[in-house]
Each structure stands twice: as C-alpha cells, then as structure tokens.
Design goal:
Shape: flat
Radius of gyration: 33 Å
Helix content: 40-55%
Low-confidence stretches: 52-75, 80-108, 260-266
Order of helices and strands: HHEHHHHHHHHHHEEEHHHHHEEEEHHHH
Mean pLDDT: 79
Distance between the termini: 83 Å
C-alpha cells in the first residue's frame, strides 16, 4: 500500500567554500604554494605581488557615478571597483619568519635507479630478446634493490606484456647478469641472497668463506642471533664468530638505497612554523611563504570601468560582466580564505607551544605533557578536526630540530605518585634503559616492565612490547652481542 507522509529533518552540511577552506588549512607549505599557483593560473582576476595603487583618483572617479548603474541591480559594479587590495585584500603579516624571502630549493638530478642499471647492460653482449628480459628484470627491482616476485610470475608477464615466450631457466640466466651489476647485491630475491651476492664479490679470505658458509647453512640461526648453536654446529671460536658478524654487518641490506642519484630518496621538509627562544621567552613565527601578497587584478577593474562608461550595453557585454563578477567573487573569497588559514595556523600552533612550553624551553622529552587534540581544540574554541588538520601535515622548526607537530601529542597515564605523565616520557625512559643495558644479556620485555615499574611507571609487559615496536627497538635476542 502506497502512503505519503511529510517528515521534518534537521541536518547540517558544509558549504563548498567551507570544504575548500578545510582543505587549505590541511595543506603544508609546499603543497599550499602549488595550490596557490594553480588558483592564480585558473583565475585571471587573482594576481600576486605588489601592485601600484591609484586609489584616490580611482575611487573618487567612480563613487560619484554610483547612481548611474541602478539599471543593472544584479551587478553592483561599484562593489568591484574599489581598490580591494589596499588594505582589505592584500595579505600582510607581522609574524614573518626569516625564511619569507624567496629561495630556490635544490633538487637532485641525473639518472633514475633503473636507468643507471640499464646503462650498465651495454657492457654485455646480449641478444635482443635477452636484453629485453634483462631490462624487464631491472624494471621489477624496487627502491630497496630487491626483486620481490617469483621467476614464474615474471615468465608469465613477459609473455603477456612483452610478447616474449621464454622459460624460467633463461630468465634465471639473465637474472645472474643483472645481479652482477652495481651496486653489489642488487636484484636479489631475499636478504640471504643479497648478502651472499655481496660476499662472493669480495676478495676471498678465511673470514669471507666462513661467512658464506654460515649464511648458506645457518641463515635463520644467524638472523635470530642463536650464537651458541652457530658455535657448536660450525665448530668455531667466539673470536671467529665475531669476525663473521663484523664482516656481514658491513654489508648493505638495501643496495638500492646506496645509489646517490636515486630521486625517490630525495625528500625536503619545509617547516611551516619556527619557534625560537629569545630572552628566555618563546617566539613563534609562521613561514612567510604561507602569507603571500595577493590582490584583485587591476585589469579586470579596468574592464568593469569600460562597461560602466558604455551607454549602450549589448547582451555579450552583460555576459562578459557576469563572468568577471564570478571571477572577482572567487578571487576575493580565496584571499579571505588564505587570511583565515593563516590565522587558524597561528592560533593553533601558539596554543600547542604554550601547552608544551616546558618542553620547548628545555628540549627534554620528559618535559612533554600528555596532550590530545581535544585539549587544544577546547583551548582555542575550534573543532577537533581543525586541530587535526593542522597537526597531521605540518612541521615546526625548534631549537632541537624540525618535528612533525602531531608528534607532540600523546596519551597520558598515572605514575605511582598519582601524577599524569605523557606516554612520550615513558618511551624516552624505555629507550634510555635499552641503551644502557648489558648487550651480552639484553633485557626481555618482562624485565623492562619491571625496571619501569621500579622507576615509578607501572605498565604491563604487552605495553612495553608495543612501545618497543613503536621505537623500532628489536626484541632482546636480536639485541644480543658477543
């Protein structure tokens, strides 16, 4: 049975402009500059840099003619003829940091890693088909220098994508050629194979031969540092095993990372904020590249001026003015959005700086207070999502290094004194405890939990294991040294 009924529903939706503003707030400095460049390219009514103003005669000339345009109520031209860029629509800031001067960022240039490998193939005499197979294998090498796929899969891909019908044995022969390229160990299919390739290319010696034997016959025991098993199985002394460990430790487990011109390894972090200590007080500044000078293009104002002075207005002229109006509206909104972005960034980071003032003055991570997004959101009377957008993608340059802002946030726990302490503080103490342990008898997670409890931090063994993983500290047996 069909039935009609009326329901009232209250919902809240963000406008497209609010969504765009949230996206602008989330952008770090470098991405913001790209977004700014794109907006200037897309909107000819938006211009950057300083523009000479003729505001006195410009405004006087057109303020007296306001009554002449009442016939076009849908386009109030006078709203667009004021010199908007002085002062309302030209961004200025009194908190520029020292990096507000325009600087060029150097980028690495040269051959990519695959190109570098392919260039070495020219020293080999290969048939056209074998050359294509070798190049396909090089294309399968990842940034670390490994081939993570089976040869059977590669044989299938050669048939489907290159129209080369071959077999596993032929591919393996070409793989040996690729593995002979520099850097040593490249195109290995496992860590074991990578280390063995490097050892076999070194000048033969007693230590090298013993290292090869141990990796070939006892790789798992060596990786897990079961030294007693190795001593017994290979009938060697502790001194011999130390020499083997030293030899293998000198090898490169990620040969792809050793290629200096590997473009993927080039990364530039541009701090969005700078915190300095002056006369015992903290001083916060925003990277000047986040506060560009923008204004509405005078060319578009002149176009409106010509339309206003025209007595006979065609439909084409009206359409052109409507287009200009849309572009001017978009330009004005974008400039205001950038101002709001700048204010939001400064307000949020200032609250974080004040909250963690003790840390920023001392640099000791143990001075970090427990802090969650809600703490800052309540402090600045903004939504948690806004604070998250600022914290998750931006960096701050401090006297102790450049840090991702979200790293200053941490949960809290109560110590034996009943005080709220940051989990970052506990991690720092855990890290220091591991550094000072006897490497011949490293502390297990259970013993680490006991040590932390004695220091006044009652946490469970599984929590210790979680923090240890987050700090990239291996388990006790892998920290063991002879």
């Amino acid at each position: 049975m069909l039935k009609q009924q009326l329901n009232l529903k209250l919902s809240q939706k963000l406008s497209p402009q609010q969504i765009q503003l949230m996206k602008l707030i989330q952008l770090p400095t470098q991405a913001f500059e790209q977004r700014l460049k794109q907006e200037i390219e897309d909107n000819p009514a938006l211009a950057s840099g300083k523009e000479k103003s003729e505001e006195a005669e410009f405004e006087e000339e057109f303020s007296n003619e306001a009554d002449d345009v009442q016939e076009e109520p849908e386009i109030d031209i006078d709203d667009y003829l004021s010199d908007d860029d002085i002062p309302s629509y030209q961004l200025r800031a009194n908190n520029y940091s020292k990096d507000d001067d325009e600087r060029q960022i150097p980028y690495a240039s040269g051959k990519s890693f695959p190109e570098y490998l392919k260039s070495q193939l020219r020293t080999f005499r290969l048939t056209e088909e074998n050359k294509k197979i070798a190049e396909f294998l090089i294309g399968s090498v990842d940034d670390a220098g490994y081939i993570r796929r089976s040869l059977d899969d590669i044989v299938d891909d050669l048939a489907f994508t290159q129209n080369i019908y071959t077999n596993k044995e032929t591919v393996e022969k070409q793989l040996k050629i690729v593995q002979s390229l520099d850097p040593s160990g490249v195109a290995a299919r496992s860590l074991k194979e990578c280390l063995l390739i490097q050892l076999k290319r070194r000048e033969s010696s007693e230590v090298i031969q013993l290292s090869i034997k141990i990796l070939e016959e006892s790789f798992d025991a060596f990786a897990k540092k079961h030294y007693e098993k190795l001593l017994k199985k290979h009938e060697i002394t502790k001194d011999q095993l130390r020499e083997v460990i030293e030899e293998i430790s000198s090898l490169n487990p990620k040969p792809g990372g050793s290629y200096s011109n590997n473009i993927h390894n080039v990364e530039h972090v541009i701090p969005d904020f700078t915190i300095q200590i002056k006369d015992g007080e903290l001083e916060l500044s925003l990277n000047g590249r986040n506060a560009p000078q923008l204004h509405v293009s005078s060319h578009y104002k002149n176009m409106l001026k010509g339309y206003k002075e025209t007595k006979k207005r065609t439909s084409e002229q009206k359409n052109a003015v409507m287009f200009i109006k849309q572009k001017l509206d978009a330009a004005k909104w974008f400039i205001e959005a950038i101002q709001q972005r700048q204010q939001t960034l400064m307000l949020t980071m200032n609250a974080i700086m004040e909250y963690q003032k003790d840390y920023f003055l001392s640099g000791d991570e143990r001075d970090l207070k427990p802090m969650i997004l809600k703490d800052i959101a309540e402090k600045i009377d903004m939504d948690v999502s806004t604070v998250s957008r600022v914290a998750n993608s931006k960096y701050v340059d401090t006297p102790y290094g450049t840090t991702l802002i979200k790293d200053f946030f941490s949960e809290s726990m109560t110590n034996t004194k009943g005080e709220e302490v940051s989990t970052r503080e506990i991690k720092k103490i855990l890290e220091l405890t591991v550094e000072k342990e006897d490497k011949k008898k490293p502390l297990t997670d259970e013993k680490l939990a006991q040590v932390l409890k004695e220091k006044g931090y009652p946490i469970a063994r599984r929590t210790v294991a979680k923090y240890r993983d987050q700090l990239s500290i291996p388990v006790a047996r892998l920290r063991k040294k002879l």
